[in-house]
Structures are given as structure tokens and as C-alpha cells.
Amino acid sequence: MRQFLNLIFLAGIMLLGGCNPNNQVRIFIDNQSELKDSLVIRDFITQEHIVILPYNVPVTLIKIDYPTLFSIARLSDPDNSLYWGILSPNRDKTIKIDSGEKLGTNCLADSLLHQLFVSNNSFIGQHQNFIFRAEDPIEVFNLFDSLIIQRDSLINRFEKNLTSAEREILLFQNSGRAYSFLFFYGRLIKNLDPDNPYWEFIKHIDNHSNYNRSLPHNLLYKFEIEYLRKHHELKSIPSFIDFIHLQTNNRDLANYLTAIYIKELIASPSYWKRHNKLFDAVSLQQILEEQKNNPYREVYERVVENFFASQKGMEAFNFTAIDTKNQPVKLSDFSGQFVLIAVWATWCGPCIAQKPHFYKLSSNHNFRDNIQFITISVESSIDRWQNFLAENRNLQGEVLELIVPAGKRTEFLERYSATFLPKYILIDQEGKIIDADAPKPSQELESMLNGLLSMN
Q: Which of 19, 284, 344, 393 fits 351 for a cystine, CB–CB 3.0-4.6 Å?
């Protein structure tokens, strides 16, 4: 907490400067570095570009109609240079780039918000032994509850220097960020029953607030728990969608949550294990027909398109990647072979943990002549990818290392619905998909590969 407070003071606690009429905002750039890279500002919720700021243009004028969460990043490295903040109508903002090319702004609310975002991970890292070894999950809840209280106190200490909207956003994000981990811990790590007293914190989540748009999963997870408390088991996907609409009086929010839910069923199946058993291409068609008037259907339309395109038997997307010698490689180069792809990145801990198992699988002599093992990094930095490979030369196996060097925002990831990493994709000798969500390197995957080879 002391580090959190010190970082805020280092960022400066001055209020935003002058005002402009008609919800216009002037964005100034104070560049104290040698950086010659444009900046991109994205809407945090939609991930759409709000504006690109050329490095040689000192002032840019934009229009903001309501307080908006945003991220700033270097255009050439958008996934590894992030700074978060709040854009408010009629309130100018100065983006600072210090001598070390670190991003920031002149706004206290931004500094607070940014630290809320980054401090969760550091807090989890500091307490990981306790968190993952605790026998009673209530103890983990109590740990995070104390964090929420401490950070609420800090936000309220600066109340006079914040607008009411900024303070509300900060308080919501404080508890919401902690709840996000608590949901992950309770649902996926501990697999807790919906009636477990651990879940009592869900009563503090407002079913109707538009702030839920920034953390929609929290409300969806809350509704899942309440649905299961009422019905004991999931009856159908449409029944859960109906439940979403019954639980909030904010119709627009309900439509948005429904769109996010449909997208997540496809993009993040491991987070919706109870729902997967009832979800397939046929049920999705029914859902899409029922949701044809949902004003937020664009949230899931691209993912749905890619879902149908990545079903078993469909032609696999013929991507182009780069090898370690900077030469282009296409999927079609491996015609006549089975192809097993591991999608990963150096910033993905589970990916790194599975990499040795993938290499070990590739060294199986039964697979060498018939299966091409490929890892595809979605790193935004080729140098970071190359450095990792250089530092891990001890990995032994028959694996082709490739990179799609545009980070997480690539057609490759979209076509294969690779929202969460690692992801494993199995393709047949004719370039058709066998399984776009193959098992991780394991006995199950090895048996699947042996079964394929025995039929050929």
C-alpha cells in the first residue's frame, strides 16, 4: 500500500487543466524522451481506437460525451506499454513520456486507476503461497477484502481532488478488480459449490450499474451462482440468458451482458464448464436467431463467424508466420502432414509451463514423420521472442518455432478464436481442422495423435 501511495505522488496529484465547451478535450503530449513513436488511445471496454496521437503533433482535439476508461500505449508495442486512465468531457489531459519512455498523465485519477489495475497482480504475487495453499477459501476472501478496504480509504483520502464520476469509477474498479480474482479462485481453482459461504461477497455487486460494462464477467459469474442456487443445475443456454434479463432492470445492460456471454461461450470455453455441455453449433444457431435484435450483436458476430469456420472438417485458415531466420512460413507448406500448433506468448505463464511438455511430445518417434509440431508466438516484440528462444535452447524436440509479429490483435488469432492462451490446434493432411481446441500436451493428446496415425 505504501508503494501504491508513493507511485501516486510520483505521478503528480494536480487536477486536470483548462476546460473546453461541447465536450471537447485537448490532449497534450509532454515528451521528455527520445521516443519517435505515435501513441494510441483505446476505449477500455470496446478496445476500439479513440484516437492515434502522432509523436510530432503536440496537441490533439477529441470529443468525449461521458467519462470513459481508456488505455494509452505506444502504437508499435500496444500490449506491453499500457497506461490506464479516465477521459472526461471538457477536461484537458497531458500525456507524459519520461526520459525512460514510461507513459503517464498529469491526472491524479489516472494515477490511482493505473495502480489499481497493476497492483492486483503484484498483490497476488506477494501472497501467492498463502492464496494457493490456503485450506479455507474464506481466508483468501478476507485477504482481498482487507485490500479493498485499504484502497477505498486511499481513494477517499483524495476525494476533494476527484470529480464525483472519477471517485465512483475508482471505487467500482477497486472492488471489481479484487472480485475478478475471487471469482477466478472460487470457480476455477477451488470449484466451489454455489451455496458455499465464500460467495457472500456477490451481494455487494450492483446488478443495475452501467459501470458493470467494464467488468461484465463479474456480473455474469454472479448471475451464474444465483441461477444455480435457484435451479441447482443449468437447464439450457437460453434459460440462463432469460435469467440475465430477469436479474437486472437495466435492459441495455442486460443486452450487453448477453452479447458478452455469447462471445465468451465461444472464446473462453474453459471459463464456462457447466455451459459447454449444452453448447454446440446447433444451439448457437438457435441463440443467434433469438438474439437477432440485440443491439450489441456486433460484440460476438466476428467470434461467431470464426467459430463456424473453425469447426471440425472446415478448411483451416492458411496463415503466414515468420521463422527464426525471418523467412515466411505458410500452413499450406505442410500439406500431406498432420499439423499440431501451440499458440503462446512469453507473457503467458501457463504457456511457458506447457512448452517443455509440447517439446517432449514432439520427440516421440511415432510422430516425427507424420506430424509437424509448430509453436506460434503472438508476441508483439520479435526481439522478446528471439531472446526467450535463445535463453531456452535446452528445450529438446522436433518443433518449428514461428511468430505472428503483430501481438494479440491479429487475423490469425481471430480466425482460430484464440482469445485465451495457450491454445492447441490440430489440422489434418488436407489442411482441414480436426480440433481447434485440442487438449494440452498430455496423455490425452498423445492418445488422440496415436489414434489419428493408426487410421492412416
A: 344
What residues are paired with 310 via a beta bridge? none
Q: What was the pLDDT predicted at 364?
A: 86
Residues of the chain with pLDDT under 50: 1-20
Ordered structural domains, the chain, with CATH: 17-106 (2.60.40), 205-309 (no CATH), 320-454 (3.40.30.10)
- Alpha-carbon distance of 182 to 176, in angstroms, equals 10
**Residue 21: its pLDDT value, please?**
55
Predicted pLDDT of residue 140 = 97
pLDDT tens per residue across span 423-447: 899 999 999 999 888 888 988 888 8
Over residues 341-369, the pLDDT tens digits come to: 999 988 888 888 899 999 999 988 888 78
First CA to last CA distance, the chain: 61
Burial of 174 (0-12, 13-18, 19+ CB in 10 A): buried
Specify the pLDDT at position 431: 92
Taking only the tens place, the pLDDT of each residue in 209-225 is 999 999 999 999 999 99
What's the CA angle centered on 124, arms 120 and 191, to 5 degrees?
Answer: 105
| pLDDT computed for residue 409 by the predictor | 61
- Residue in this structure with the C-alpha cell 501504491, named with its chain if needed: 4
Distance from chain centroid for Cα 277: 24
